[in-house]
Design brief:
With 506 residues, the protein is mainly alpha-helical. The protein is built from 15 helices and two strands. It has a two-stranded antiparallel sheet. A hairpin with a 2-residue loop joins strand 1 and strand 2.
């Protein structure tokens, strides 16, 4: 009886708490709407200022790390010195005290070596970090020129939800499919206390086909492939918008870059995104099969088999992440070069390998900066909600609406910053290709902006040539010959004009 009462009390408490939560959400719908709208505005503002925010955060982290690398070993050596002096002055020198002094010395040496390596890395990577800050600024400039690109993930979400709904609908048919089979058995019926009658009963049930497991695997592969296909189309469309800005010298001539990027994907590159997404879907299907085997055999596995399956899962997870990274950069390369998927993978792998230090800095530090941006959006939204709701007497738990708004703010920030992340990758790939193919001399001018030009090896000469060319163009404009002379002096671009380029997906 007591156990039943406790169970009923717990259920009643949970039900009451749910009612309070729903009541708070209903009573705070105005504040929720304000917080959700504020998260959109905050995301816009942070993206606008992200270049300068990234610069402040990066240099602050570098300065604090350098101070820690100097102060940490100094403190350990001071502790070791104090322990050494105390040990030498002690009349009773224990072996444990001697081992403590020796251990402190080893710790101080190890820490000094590690901090020296970190300091050298900070000095060595200083220019690479500067390039990353410039990439953030360039991406921010391009995003502000095509602000509609921030809303493309909404279209992506609609397509993915529609695909998931279709997949679920078809799953219902597969689950209920089978062969009608008769099931006969005998049941005993009690007619009266002294009479029991046997009766033959025939029931019909649907027996699964022998090949139903293969149907489910095929269906599951379709879910993975379709989802990855839509994601790949989104990445290439965004990359196409960014590369239009990069490979056009006069940015004012770029019109409707987002629509043109989407058109390029569906007109020229569906085969590329289908093949790349198919690779990812195959890896995900193998991981799913492996997880199914693990679950079915978890009680009969030896320790060796268990750790072997875990290692295989870990390797496949790493392989999937690597392939997604290569695929994204291959899509970017295809967006401005028009090459086939395998060719793009080969070319972009060479670019990334020749810029491995830059890639490491951009992916590690850049990912941290983007996380800081998302965190700022969530924190500011939550603080705003707290001050709006803390004195509201109609609410039982103000934390619940704030939590809901914070989750929405994170989703909005992740949506916006994912576009920003693809933009940074696209600009970097274009920058690496531009640096490889051009040298800034007349006839082989860089397509990059002046800010990015500061991070190439011959930046001084390239900037001088750029200034000289601009002065010549201004002088020609003064005498009214700008059109004729510009057409006669125009250099042949490294790639066809993106406004007229017809790319074939081989």
């Amino acid at each position: 009886w007591e156990a039943g009462s406790i169970s009923e009390a717990v259920v009643s408490t949970q039900s009451t708490g749910m009612q309070y939560a729903m009541s708070d959400l209903m009573n705070s719908y105005r504040e929720l709407a304000v917080m959700c709208a504020s998260s959109l505005v905050i995301s816009f503002v942070i993206i606008l200022l992200l270049g300068w925010i990234a610069q402040v955060i990066i240099y602050a982290i570098a300065l604090l790390t350098a101070i820690a690398c100097i102060a940490g070993p100094a403190y350990f050596w001071y502790v070791w010195y104090e322990a050494k002096v105390e040990y030498d002055e002690s009349t009773l020198q224990l072996e444990s005290a001697s081992e403590n002094v020796t251990t402190l010395m080893y710790y101080a040496i190890i820490l000094s070596v590690i901090c020296l390596i970190v300091l050298l890395l900070i000095i060595f990577l200083r220019s690479r970090v500067g390039l990353m800050v410039t990439l953030f600024k360039e991406a921010g400039f391009m995003v502000m020129r095509m602000i509609v690109i921030l809303f493309t993930p909404i279209i992506l979400a609609i397509f993915i939800m529609a695909w998931a709904a279709l997949w679920t609908f078809v799953s219902g048919y597969i689950y209920t499919a089978g062969t009608p089979t008769d099931l006969e058995f005998t049941r005993q019926y009690l007619v009266n206390p002294n009479n029991v009658t046997d009766a033959n009963v025939t029931m019909v049930y649907f027996k699964d086909h022998d090949y139903i497991i293969w149907v489910w695997l095929y269906h599951l592969f379709g879910l993975y492939w379709g989802t990855e296909f839509f994601l790949a189309c989104h990445e290439m469309a965004i990359a196409g918008a960014f590369v239009q800005f990069y490979w056009t010298r006069d940015k004012r001539k770029v019109h409707f870059p987002v629509l043109r990027g989407i058109w390029w994907v569906f007109r020229y590159h569906l085969g590329t995104v289908a093949f790349g997404s198919c690779i990812i879907a195959i890896i995900q299907l193998i991981r799913t099969i492996l997880a199914y085997i693990q679950n079915k055999t978890k009680d009969s596995q030896s320790e060796f088999v268990k750790y072997l399956l875990l290692c295989l899962q870990c390797c496949l997870w790493c392989f999937e992440k690597i392939m997604k990274f290569i695929n994204r950069n291959a899509y970017i390369y295809t967006a401005f070069k028009g090459s086939a998927f395998c060719t793009s993978c080969k070319k972009v792998f060479g670019l990334l390998l020749s810029n491995v230090v830059r890639v490491g800095v951009i992916n590690c530090v850049g990912m941290f900066i983007l996380f800081i941006g998302k965190f700022l959006v969530v924190i500011v939204t939550a603080i705003l909600g707290y001050f709006m709701m803390k004195n509201d007497d109609d609410l039982y738990f103000w934390a619940i609406p704030v939590l809901i708004a914070s989750i929405f703010a994170f989703a909005v920030a992740h949506t916006f910053f994912s576009v920003y992340e693809i933009g940074i990758d696209a600009i970097f790939i274009c920058f690496a290709e531009d640096e490889t193919k051009n040298d800034g001399t007349p006839g082989r001018e860089y397509y990059m902006s002046k800010n990015l030009m500061e991070w190439v090896d011959n930046s001084g000469e390239a900037i001088k040539n750029l200034r000289r060319k601009k002065k010549q163009q201004k002088a020609q404009a003064r005498v009214g010959k700008s059109n004729d002379v510009a057409s006669s002096k125009q250099t042949t671009p490294m790639y066809p004009d993106l406004n007229e380029m017809e790319m074939t997906d081989k």
